[in-house]
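Exercise 7.
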Amino acid sequence: MLLTLGLVLLQILLVTKKGGGKLVPNAWQSVVELIYDFVLNLVNEQIGGPSANVKQKFFPCILVTFTFLLFCNLQGMIPFSFTVTSHFLITLALSFSLFIGITIVGFQRHGLHFFSFLLPAGVPLPLAPFLVLLELISHCFRALSSGIRLFANMMAGHSLVKILSGFAWTMLFMNNIFYFIGDLGPLFIVLALTGLELGVAILQAYVFTILICIYLNDAINLH
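Solution. The predicted structure, written as tokens, is:
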């Protein structure tokens, strides 16, 4: 995690070391600007209602979350490296921290009226107790589901690549020409899965971030 943070800070330092970026951006500056614009558009699209000043208050936290997860996931694709987000303790701690922060934001903006999200408007009175309990359980499971989703996707993909890589490596060193020829199939599958896992690494950082934006929008605007 410290290595990931170091890489993020180093990249930003290379872009802003002279007090700002270049008029014609280089490759590093283009990457930083692409991430910044992407997250900014995501916040503007998913969080409705408040003015731009209110959205900008939450933007740094969302940008740091997305960048940290993106670098953690991509760093895990390097051979002999370590994938932080494939451990449930890390993803659970991150999701619970953000969930608690979003709940605090909801109480700060609405006070006790924040509990009104448990009962949508127009619900018949006999169904109210059942829906309140259902909405409360659904709300609390948001923190758990976000962490499980990120952990499960990263762990499953890396495990599959590792198993097939070991299988291809074993066949490659068999003292038989048929094993060597047959190894090309698993080898191509490993290469395809590596490309797929690279896409999953980027996608999971995006999914986690967009869910945080949706939960934050619910806390700010209620139903």
